[in-house]
Amino acid sequence: MTDIKGACEPRFAAVRAALAASLDKDDVGASVAVYLDGEPVVDIWGGYADADRSVGWERSTLTCVNSTTKTMTALSALILADRGRLDLSAPVADYWPEFAAAGKESMLVRHVLSHTAGLPTLTGPAAVEDLYDWENVTAGLAAQAPDWEPGTAAGYHALTFGFLIGEVVRRITGRSLGEFFAEEVAEPLGADFHIGLSAAHDHRVAPLIPPPSLTDEYVAAAPLGPDGAPPETTGAAIRVRDVNSAAWRRAQIPAVNGFGNARSVALVQSVLASRGAAGGVRLLSPQGCEPAWQEVFRGEDRVLGTPMCWTAGFGRFGSTFGWGGWGGSLVASDPDARMTVAYVMNRMIDRGRQEDNRGMEIVMAAYGGLR
């Protein structure tokens, strides 16, 4: 059995066993964390940071979590809302005047957060490199007409979510989403999560490993459903080798290019599950957390092709809310249990070819520790 490092309270021994089993079967390297009331009860890792299995996964190892990043972008918006600087029921154009073009003058901030804005695709970028030009991408979104009347339907905004929310944050604060998150969330909490990763951290990055039998040309393609890891869809074909590039790490694509580990993901998201504070640091009022789990839209998601419940920035599944990333990472929070569970790995699984229950098995093991 794979050696598991880190700390795990005895009642959560099933979480450690689940990670070990996953590393013995499908995973190469991974980390898992569980937070209760904003404090860690599980912080474990194991396996390898490279496909050759020559470099061990360490406590400080980071990897790209793809769309799990959306939970960090959503939290940033909720913090601004809680501070009275952002009204979720106000038109986006109140903060970003150019956005009123093409019939979007009445589109609300909560439409963007709940994937009901009608802007699920980027019509301009044709190559991944185009995504690195923030001003060009956001100008294109400002000029773009919605595919449906905002609020009347939902369609997963795989890449546009980050640019739309990120530009609103920039207009309000004068800082990029990555800068705001670093200064207002990661630094106060001591969370090792980055949206836009500096070269100083490159040596800690575990590159994503394509699914078995596939190469690093593997592309984020058709949506596969919300119960683990929906892929990132866009006009630009995003390949594994793009996500593993230095250019991707330096860019700001706040829907998909966050780098962290399970500890950092769970720490940050536990702020919402524990009513605004974690590790003795308060980022929101208890009331300011509630939009994360309050339903905004329920129905068929036009992009995912499956029934979804969207809140202000998160998918809701029963009593939990959170989201996952292309390849398998995920975070799930339960405000009733005041628990957050995160799973971050480097070995991707293509759910069109192989069932992927790794993250959900970790979550279910964590619930077992509560009983």
Please identify the structural class as seen in this structure.
Answer: alpha+beta
The largest beta-sheet arranges its strands as: 1-3-2-14-13-12-11
Span of the ends, CA to CA: 26 Å
Assembly state? single chain
Number of strands: 14
How many distinct helices? 11
Query: What is the average per-residue confidence, as pLDDT, rounded to a whole number?
Result: 94
The topology string of helices and strands comes to EHEEEHHHHHEHHEHEEHEEEEEEH
- CATH fold-level topology: Beta-lactamase
Question: Ranges with pLDDT <50 over ≥5 residues?
Answer: 222-233
Q: What's the CATH architecture?
A: 3-Layer(aba) Sandwich
Sheet of most strands: 7 strands, antiparallel
CATH superfamily (homologous) name: DD-peptidase/beta-lactamase superfamily
At a glance:
With 371 residues, the protein is α+β, with helices and mostly antiparallel strands.
Write the layout of secondary structure elements.
Elements: E1 4-8, H1 13-25, E2 29-36, E3 39-47, E4 63-64, H2 70-82, H3 109-113, H4 134-143, H5 160-173, H6 177-189, E5 194-195, H7 240-243, H8 246-250, E6 258-260, H9 262-273, E7 277-278, E8 281-282, H10 286-289, E9 297-301, E10 306-310, E11 315-317, E12 320-324, E13 330-334, E14 339-345, H11 358-370
Antiparallel strand pairs: 1-3, 2-3, 2-14, 4-6, 5-6, 7-8, 9-10, 11-12, 12-13, 13-14
Helix pairs in contact: 1-11, 2-5, 4-5
